[in-house]
Amino acid sequence: MSVSETGQIAPLDRGLMDVRAMLGKNAKGLDALLKGFMPPERFCGAILTLCRANPDLTDHTKAHRASLLLAVMRIAQLQISPDPALGQAWVVPRKGRAEFQLGWKGCLALAYRSPLVRAVRYNVVGKADRFVWRDGRDYHLEHEPVEEGWPTKLDDVRAAWCIIETTRGGDIPRVMYRAEIERHKARGAGSQPAWA
Fold it and tell me: How many Cβ atoms are within 10 Å of 128's Cβ, its own excluded?
């Protein structure tokens, strides 16, 4: 049961009930994949929260149930949180399917599990920031952000960068300028929560 806008108790959405039943039928499989990372009840609760936030996920015509289950299983297999507040993983309806989408915070969580990763440094470059990037064997990256911090709108973004420091002493740098970010956003259905 849920409370409607008028304050009356309303039955749960039929699609949400179907998703809850699907999760219940697959609880043992989810528990095996989670391997103690998180209690399956909490994991399933986070999946239901994702579905409440995006009702297209509970509409089987917009997100086929089998694809939703596969996306959920993938999140469990990677042992990352589907909680929308953490932004580690998303389930996104696209062309009648529910698709798993890894969030940047999920990438970060997975990177820190690797014995090869010592540290990950990253930032977003605003229009007013001082930024110098030269790629190559002896790459050079300088970034002096303004006091306001990360830009709040994509229009104010010049670039984003990340450097993975390895335990063997090397660095893996990556810089994406705004045009490349925009192309990824356009390909990834940019209105979805992972892009917001």
Answer: 13
